[in-house]
Amino acid sequence: MLVAATMASAIAVVHARHEHRLQFIELTRLERERDELDIEFGRLQLEQATWADTARIEEVARNRLKMVTPEGDALIVVRP
Description:
This protein is an all-alpha fold. It contains 2 helices and no strands.
């Protein structure tokens, strides 16, 4: 009876260590994926800041869209 309990305990320990290793491998993979996503997020933030730069927007408006600043009598002021 004691031998059977010892064997069952040993098998349970081996199983628990195996599960721990599998979960640790998964954790490592997820951490690596998180780090890659953090890097990509930083790149996207930088790209967004570049596209949203006021000077760049003004340049695109003037050059591509041929927009100009309105002259004095072309301005209409609307007051509440």
